[in-house]
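Input structure tokens:
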């Protein structure tokens, strides 16, 4: 039996003493796209942040495994180096740091290198920016400073491509996007998966519209800190039409 990329078993997590995740079981395999849906306050973003080791959340029970190895106690940077990637709902801007500078540091850390030449970074960036239909001048802009919603999301897809994770988690990456920006995100994810088909993806979203583009293999419904149902893409369409009432207590 193939070992899943991500295996979450009985995961409980708290924030400021309040339990938010109440026993999450989830498995994501190579080449699979999973969607996590649920109402506001269900714990979706908490799960995404907990999987990446955010210090804002304390794991009180359960296990998180990456490629069969427990990462439950690992720090966020160690998990990232091991191949876990999180695209934030609201990525922060970093004035004075160019996209190229940021990615060079991130790529060095991911590849466990003391030094990565600027030329090598520029060449790799150029190839991916061309694939993602990004203006080359984007590389010299300060990270997320003055970026539109679509530009922020496209930058996150560029990071995902260059850091070559084994598992990518997209936390409400469609939040606040118009139809054109949404297509940018979906096309970008599809392009990365085309070049790295073994990538596993977990998409946290409120909306079926992104999933109609990404075509998930599995859809999970999270209610009050617990996954209450798992199905195929048709489950997302049912949620879009009827909401979450049938799963509420």
């Amino acid at each position: 039996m193939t070992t899943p990329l991500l295996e979450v078993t009985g995961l409980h997590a708290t924030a400021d003493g309040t339990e938010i995740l109440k026993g999450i079981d989830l498995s994501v395999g190579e080449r699979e796209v999973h969607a996590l849906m649920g109402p506001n306050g269900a714990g979706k973003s908490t799960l995404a942040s907990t999987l990446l080791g955010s210090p804002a959340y304390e794991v009180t029970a359960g296990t998180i495994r990456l490629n069969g190895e427990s990462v439950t106690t690992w720090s966020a940077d160690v998990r990232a180096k091991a191949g876990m990637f999180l695209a934030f709902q609201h990525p922060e801007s970093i004035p004075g740091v160019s996209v190229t500078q940021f990615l060079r540091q991130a790529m060095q850390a991911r590849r466990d290198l003391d030094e990565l030449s600027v030329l090598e970074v520029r060449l790799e960036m150029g190839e991916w920016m061309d694939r993602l239909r990004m203006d080359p001048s984007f590389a010299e802009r300060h990270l997320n400073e003055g970026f539109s919603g679509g530009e922020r999301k496209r930058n996150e897809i560029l990071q995902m491509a260059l850091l070559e994770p084994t598992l990518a988690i997209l936390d409400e990456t469609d939040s606040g996007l118009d139809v054109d920006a949404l297509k940018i995100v979906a096309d970008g994810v599809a392009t990365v998966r085309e070049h790295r088909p073994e990538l596993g993806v977990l998409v946290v979203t409120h909306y079926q519209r992104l999933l109609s583009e990404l075509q998930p293999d599995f859809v999970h419904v999270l209610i009050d800190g617990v996954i209450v149902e798992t199905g195929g893409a048709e489950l997302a369409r049912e949620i879009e039409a009827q909401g979450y009432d049938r799963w509420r207590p």
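The longest strand covers residues 18-28. DSSP finds eight helices and twelve strands in the chain.
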